[in-house]
Design brief:
Helix content is 66%, strand content 0%. By secondary structure, the protein is mainly alpha-helical.
């Protein structure tokens, strides 16, 4: 029993409060460093930037081309892609409007050229014929509509110099 000893008292803390201030300073420095790193651009390299409306539209058009769905679904999706592109790119409220309402809004907004407005009008009216009047276009018509949508999206995207000018 000689090797078993009684519990000793508490270890006395150093005199003064300097050690408390040291711990608080280290915690504050750690928090400040964490906040600073969160605000730095490029630190969150794991978060990809959101795709632009142009990138989304081109990706969806390629997917539509690859999937080659039935005619009515094809035109519905094609119309939705173009309308969502216009809403994201130009702020035009395309998805929830009828073709006539949307074309009226586009005619008052001068962000699209006359050629683009005419191309858009013809494209949307053809899509409406398929969706609502059960018009059955051929494979060549579907290819032409897809090519027209791709051309419209590509031609109407803002160029780098336009983006810089508006920034």
């Amino acid at each position: 029993m000689e090797d078993i000893h009684d519990i000793k008292g508490l270890v006395p803390l150093p005199h003064g409060w300097w050690w408390v201030w040291l711990v608080l300073a280290l915690v504050a420095a750690a928090v400040a460093l964490w906040l600073w790193k969160r605000r730095q651009p490029g630190v969150s390299a794991f978060i990809a930037p959101l795709p632009t409306p142009y990138e989304v539209a081109i990706r969806e058009l390629r997917r539509l081309r690859e999937e080659n769905p039935p005619v009515e679904e094809f035109y519905t999706r094609l119309s939705d892609i173009v309308r969502q592109y216009l809403e994201g790119q130009m702020g035009l409220h395309a998805p929830e409007r009828t073709t006539e309402e949307f074309l009226f809004e586009v005619s008052r907004d001068h962000s699209l050229s006359t050629e683009h407005r005419e191309l858009l009008g013809a494209f949307l009216q053809e899509a409406d014929l398929v969706k609502f009047a059960k018009f059955q276009p051929g494979a060549e018509d579907m290819q032409r509509a897809l090519d027209a949508a791709e051309k419209f999206v590509h031609d109407s995207q803002p160029r780098a110099e336009e983006v810089v000018a508006t920034a």
